[in-house]
């Protein structure tokens, strides 16, 4: 949109750790703690809404932007994990497991991250995430380091 809209999709907002998962809005106590003025933050929007159209000169035509989703959340959605209890694992530089917890926030008993998976058709789906940030990268390091 070339700056026409200052928005962030809900799953991406949740990953800033500044969004309150229950209210799905910026957490005022955290903003105060870190001295972040709420006015500088983007408006939180649903995953499936019409955000705007691309700027006319950018791609040769205006194209509607009608969906955004976070990185691992999009993998959970893309692998059809639509029901509570369904999970996916993604392997790359890191390894990321997401577990669909349905419409309720499930606090982890094992230090996993509670996160917003997506907001679609007026409903919010949550997930638990476990991350290993150096999975495939370690294999590459071993390969390159050991010759």
UniProtKB/TrEMBL annotation:
Q: What is its EC number?
A: 2.7.1.30
Give me the Gene Ontology terms describing cellular component. cytosol
Pfam families for this protein: FGGY_N
Q: Which domain of life is it from?
A: Bacteria
Family matches, as Gene3D superfamilies: 3.30.420.40
Q: Does the keyword Kinase apply?
A: yes
Give the matching SUPFAM superfamilies: Actin-like ATPase domain
List each copy of the Carbohydrate kinase FGGY N-terminal domain by range.
5-78
Keyword Secreted recorded: no
Signal peptide span: none
Give UniProt keywords alphabetically.
Kinase, Transferase
Name one molecular function that GO assigns to this entry.
glycerol kinase activity
One of this protein's GO BP terms? Answer: glycerol catabolic process
The family classification in the record reads: Belongs to the FGGY kinase family.
Q: What is this protein called?
A: Glycerol kinase
Specify the species. Devosia limi DSM 17137
